[in-house]
Specification:
This protein has 758 residues and is mainly α. It has 26 helices and five strands. Helix 6 runs antiparallel to helix 7 and helix 7 crosses helix 18.
């Protein structure tokens, strides 16, 4: 106990010391990467931004995280992060940057927390290197510059880690409870993803605490019970509330938060056993182009300019739609194919894996000589914690059936921690000529440089040969020089250590800046020279000029386009058995093809939607950096002519209009703050409405206009059929824009209907 008290006194003394001047530039780098130009993103991820707009209007909407101001359906995630975003928007005003700000600050906070966590045990230089590695991990700023949840989630889990470390040092049970309660809070940010760190928490507490097994079991059982209670607290309140007194739980099939947590946002991510049609189906790993989540709809309509469309019309009608990077082998959204080396595949490696070889060598060095039965040093105990965080999460992403690239931010803390702690440990072993362990540093440098060359090689047409050759050559030279100078001691050796860090972090630093240089994507954030596409993969030989990001090719409901169809269009599946469709179609060798017997077998299709000429982005455009991001994924512009017509002809109805899914609804909610009904929720597949319920709503005068674009028919086809059979079609001349500048998209080919029942 005296030892514990002395550690606490040392910590307090350290906290009184002046600020670490080396940390200041690291924090400034993190601030620049996370904050610079976030004000150019007007609407961020429009799906979530629309929810914040709605949550600002009433406590009812705020508590349930309602997508629309009318409280019809919630978003597909729990509310804690959106509560924070709403408070930010309340303080600073409703803007894109004000809903992004909390995540940007969380990204900076994670850098500081990692410094604090690593510095205490492994030394100040280890803390500095870890903080810098965290700041420069490309996916970290890419996610933190958006209003997606993951940056805040990681920050919260690092706060829980700090509490756990303090619990072990002070032997106070209260800190154990606080640490596990914080994981419960994180669960209410992104559900089961928060539990990915639990193996690390359990293993570390069992190994590091010097109390009896009886107390360990009792303390962990109590802390786990508290964590579960905090985790399900909001879910229990919502699920126990009468369905007619709250919004429908979006993206669930049974209107249940718990189903959402353990299904759509839980086990189905591992199995890929989800669907946008209201039913489940197993997604073969080799054909992930048929992605298994309704989230896939968000990035399927990336834009291409008219010249690119013209070029594609010249291609064969049987051409396969390849994933960015030129091959189907990279899986949907470039998440690769499941396997032990998935994190080294294209599309994932450039987001998170730049330092992985160095981390592997660091792990070997940090655990060298450790005996299974102990005793363990503090460094070994904390190394075990980071390893127990790293391995389960890495295994998940290696075998998972469905995830997006930005989920990889969960790997950033342990990778950065091992990079910092390992750099100091391997350097010490090298300088002390510690047998075979002294070769770990040169070996780590050489293999890491080789991996970085491999990561950059598909981008040679974008970044040139020089940086690739430079990293490879310098890596080899530094490794050889360190090997040759192993027996010498002078100041030059210390400079070599600094050179090593510069070489290994130079290209991750560039990659981390790409969302600023080339533009980012707030819907599906990723880093790389094509970061604005949201696909995070290497470019193909044919470049496209990206007008906006994400859903860039989508036009506002009611807009028309002068662009005609092409052989590589995205078109709606209508039950065809053709291969490679988005959810709703079947698979044939991963090829993107049209449904409904279309002759254009190179086309890609959206679920239930209509055709458009926006193709999958295969490369980046240097122009994107000078373009103002509208929504990072969902076209947040509205058709003013349609809006004027709906506003003028509204006779007191609660909803401005109803539409199939959130894609068409979100821009109008953001623009007007008025209720717009997404009848099928986010993807259009939620079984929210029935014909009888809709009739009752129309009779009550709650809604009379319906914009149907063909999107999201799964789960509501009867409702859509009834609307068409019992409505009056509004002539397009009264509400449809004829702007030739609008990009073609599935939302632009719809029809406006009016229904009045007495």
């Amino acid at each position: 106990m005296k030892h514990m008290n002395s550690e606490v006194k040392e910590e307090r003394t350290a906290n009184k010391k002046r600020i670490d001047l080396f940390l200041v530039p690291i924090v400034l780098i993190a601030a620049f990467l996370n904050l610079f130009k976030i004000w150019t993103d007007e609407y961020a991820n429009a799906y979530y931004t629309a929810a914040v707009k709605s949550m600002l209007q009433s406590f009812h909407n705020f508590f349930y995280a309602s997508f629309d101001p009318g409280g019809y359906v919630t978003i597909d995630k729990p509310p804690v992060v959106f509560w924070i975003q709403t408070i930010s928007a309340k303080i600073f005003g409703f803007h894109g940057w004000s809903v992004i700000l909390p995540q940007a600050l969380a990204g900076i906070g994670s850098v500081l927390l990692l410094y604090v966590l690593v510095k205490r045990t492994f030394g100040v230089w280890a803390g500095r290197f870890a903080a810098l590695a965290m700041a420069l991990t490309p996916i970290v700023p890419a996610v933190s510059r958006t209003n997606n949840i993951d940056s805040m989630l990681v920050f919260t889990l690092l706060v829980a880690t700090w509490m756990l470390f303090r619990a072990v040092r002070t032997a106070k049970f209260g800190w154990v409870l606080a640490a596990f309660a914080m994981i419960g809070v994180a669960f209410n940010m992104k559900m089961l993803q928060a539990y990915m760190v639990l193996p690390a928490f359990y293993v570390f507490y069992v190994v590091a605490t010097k109390i009896t097994w009886k107390k360990k079991i009792a303390f962990l059982t109590t802390a786990t019970a508290l964590m579960l209670a905090v985790s399900v607290s909001w879910a229990v309140v919502v699920d126990s509330t009468s369905a007619d007194k709250r919004p429908y739980m979006g993206s669930s099939q049974t209107n249940s938060v718990l189903e959402l947590a353990f299904g759509y946002n839980g086990i189905n991510r591992l199995t890929g056993n989800t669907s946008v049609t209201g039913s489940s189906h197993k997604q073969p790993a080799q054909t992930q182009q048929q992605t298994a989540s309704s989230e896939t709809k968000q990035n399927s309509n990336s834009s291409a300019d008219s010249s690119q469309s013209s070029n594609q019309r010249k291609s064969s009608s049987s051409q396969k739609m390849q994933a960015p990077g030129g091959g189907n082998q990279n899986g949907m959204f470039n998440t690769g194919n499941p396997g032990p080396f998935r994190l080294f595949q294209k599309g994932l490696s450039d987001q998170i894996s730049w330092l992985l070889p160095f981390v592997i060598f660091s792990i070997v060095g940090l655990f060298a000589g450790v005996k299974f039965k102990g005793p363990y040093t503090t460094k070994q105990k904390e190394s075990l914690f980071w390893l127990a965080w790293l391995l389960p999460v890495a295994v998940f992403f290696s075998i998972a059936g469905f995830f997006h690239q930005y989920y990889l931010i969960m790997l950033a803390p342990p990778i950065a921690a091992f990079a910092g702690a390992g750099a100091v440990a391997l350097w010490s072993m090298y300088k002390q000529h510690n047998g075979w362990k002294s070769w770990l540093l040169p070996g780590g440098i050489l293999t890491t440089a080789a991996l970085q060359v491999y990561i950059m090689s598909p981008y040679v047409s974008s970044i040139g040969v020089a940086p690739i050759a430079g990293v490879g050559a310098l890596g080899v030279i530094l490794a050889l020089v360190l090997a040759v100078r192993k027996q010498r001691k002078n100041s030059l050796t210390n400079y070599l250590g600094a050179a090593v860090m510069v070489v290994l972090l130079a290209m991750p630093a560039y990659w981390a800046m790409t969302p600023i240089i080339y533009g980012g994507n707030s819907m599906l954030p990723s880093a790389g020279p094509d970061s604005s596409s949201g696909m995070g993969g290497p470019p193909s030989s044919t470049a496209t000029n990206s007008k906006q990001s994400g859903f860039n090719g989508m036009q506002p409901p009611g807009s028309s386009s002068s662009n005609s169809s092409s052989n590589n269009q995205m078109q709606p599946p209508s039950g065809s058995s053709n291969s490679g469709q988005m959810p709703g179609g079947s698979s044939n060798n991963g090829q993107m093809q049209p449904s409904s017997g279309s002759s254009n077998s190179g086309q890609m299709q959206m679920p239930g939607g209509s055709s458009n000429n926006s193709q999958m982005p295969n490369s980046f455009s240097s122009k994107s950096s000078s373009l103002k991001r509208k929504s990072g994924g969902m076209n947040a512009e509205v058709n003013q002519k349609l809006l004027n017509y709906l506003t003028k002809n509204n006779t007191g109805e609660k909803y401005l209009f109803a539409t199939t899914d959130s894609t068409s609804a979100a821009p109008y909610i953001i623009k007007t703050g008025k209720p717009v009904m997404a009848m099928g929720g986010f993807s259009g597949s939620d079984p929210i409405l029935t014909v009888s319920k809709l009739k009752a709503m129309i009779k009550k005068g709650e809604v009379k206009y319906f914009y149907l674009s063909g999107m999201g028919k799964g789960g509501q086809s009867d409702v859509i059929t009834w609307i068409k059979e019992n409505s009056k079609e509004i002539p397009s001349s009264k509400w449809q824009s004829t702007s030739s500048s609008a990009q073609q998209g599935p939302s632009g080919n719809g029809t406006l209907y009016e229904i009045t029942l007495k």
